Amino acid sequence: MSRASSPARSGAAEELENDDIDIEQLITLMHRRPPLWDNFNPKYHGRILKARLWEEIYQDIYFSWEQCSVVEKKNKKIEKCKQTSRKKPARIT
């Protein structure tokens, strides 16, 4: 059975599957949180803080984030979101 046809998946999971992540919004949200990208920031190495900051970004990008299960939140699309943000910071000027 494919993941898309699984009856256990919620509408929130379907939203997470959407490839249309607004890159400009993601960059703006990250830019507002220097510990995620500024390695000179004293809080840059704080894993707990960074996890909380990513949660904030997910809530802003995915409106149904709070309705997602833990498994759905760990969906590979979230990792794709992080990877995309790592590839695109040169656009900020």
Description:
By secondary structure, this protein is an all-alpha fold. It has one domain. It is 51% helix and 0% strand. The longest helix has 15 residues. The radius of gyration is 14 Å and the shape is globular. The chain starts with 10 loop residues before the first helix and ends in a 6-residue tail after the last helix. The N terminus is likely disordered.
- What is the count of helical runs? 5
Taking the alpha carbons of the first and last residues, their distance comes to 45 Å
The number of domains: 1
State the shape: globular
Rg from C-alpha positions? Answer: 14 Å
Compute the number of strand runs: 0
- The pLDDT mean sits at 71
Helix content: 40-55%
Largest pleated sheet:
none
Order of helices and strands: HHHHH
Strand content: under 5%
Low-confidence stretches: 1-7
Q: What class do helices, strands and sheet pairing give?
A: mainly alpha
Domain MADF: 26-79
Pfam families: MADF_DNA_bdg (PF10545)
Protein name: (apollo) hypothetical protein
InterPro entries: MADF-dom
Topology readout:
Elements: H1 11-17, H2 23-31, H3 47-61, H4 70-73, H5 76-87
Give the tags.
5 helices; 93 residues
Summarize this structure briefly.
It holds the Pfam family MADF_DNA_bdg. This protein is mostly helical and 93 residues long.
